[in-house]
């Protein structure tokens, strides 16, 4: 088949193996675009399944602000400009077009977004009553049949020039004489532009699009117990592009924070655009963090490719080595904190006696003195530790929220195997008329390790908001308005017991 060279050229469709279209669409000259992409994410840490990413598409929790700078050929005076290189999931209400060559003399007075994309079934339906050519393979023979298309449902029905009607249930190729009006091969922005100065214009097209998101992942390598608590922290960002557009050589920016209203696509000015390009050259090749209103902006210091339907991972910042940390074991056996105080919990059996669990936690401070001090976007933290043979083994993971610098992070790794215990109610008194409850407990914690263990026994005072500790056999620390901690140091294969009495009044 000869190569098509105009709108009326012959188009070939390979229905069985996929569609191949070639057509010339009236489009402005566009060469060597310079992309800048800012991605906003509303993905909660751990929300997206990497195994099912290809199925999210429009439902990806995030969006992007695309800025596309390139040379466009504009008509002298009023005329139409067709721009096809946009993401399929574009929000057309956010489109902004600006000429940097003649910003005062160029304006868009009308915009249309055309997205009725061509496919095999649409073409067949449009050509009912028209002549098409169908290729069919029968055994070792190749046959080409031309005729008027009468039906395209459950196979093809053609009427030849002789009047003979044939039914084709299997075919390899359908050829159409032209692309019908109203069908396009790619989403297209159509502008009615009024330009005082025609010809080549240095232009910026910006818009928002769905189908883009990003999140953070942190990998911690924990040192052995003999080294004290030291850790190495590496941070990565994962970027997903299912917008229906590719962005080669893009300047990439990521926004971390809860953005309530997305910023409108800006109208570019030549001076501002040049300033952004000049500043980009001075940024280090990794991400550089800066403030953006009440959020944080991470700008990649080099350009990168972000193809459509791709997942890319980039280092967020160089790994922090030898960061100081703290391991903590926390024993809890009672119900959690009671936060919805409508009335006191007067049921004696509520949380009376039950076994406990010992949670294993890792804490570290996000400050410069500790080798960090960078705002950490929300994400998943995975922790590994070297075993005795030197291999790294996974020991737990947790999620963190957006964490500013100089804040403490607390990661739950799992439950302790060798530390066990229980909590037993030893006394309960109540006087509803006098409005008080007195309750006593005995807590037992056993360390079955071969070395001593430092443990915090945490008690939640869950019956009412007004409470007083009447007596305790061991020193305790008031953690907050509804929690007290009993610090314990237990020798190897030993047990610690203590008791306390609490009085609630209302």
General description of the model:
The chain has 506 residues and is mainly beta. The protein folds into three domains: 1-118 and 185-215 and 237-316; 120-176, SH3 type barrels, CATH 2.30.30; 325-367 and 406-505, Chondroitinase Ac, Chain A, domain 3 (Sandwich), CATH 2.60.220. It has two helices and 32 strands. It has helices at 120-126, 270-281; strands at residues 11-13, 31-41, 62-74, 77-83, 90-99, 106-114, 131-138, 141-151, 156-159, 165-168, 173-176, 188-195, 199-210, 212-222, 230-241, 247-256, 287-292, 295-306, 310-324, 326-332, 354-355, 357-366, 379-386, 392-400, 407-415, 419-431, 436-447, 453-460, 467-472, 477-480, 483-490, 494-505. A seven-stranded mixed β-sheet has the order 5-13-3-2-16-18-17, with helices on one face. The protein has a six-stranded antiparallel β-sheet with strand order 1-11-7-8-9-10, with helices on one face. The chain has a six-stranded mixed β-sheet with strand order 25-22-20-28-31-30, with no helix packed on it. Strand 17 (287-292) and strand 18 (295-306) form a beta hairpin. The termini are far apart.
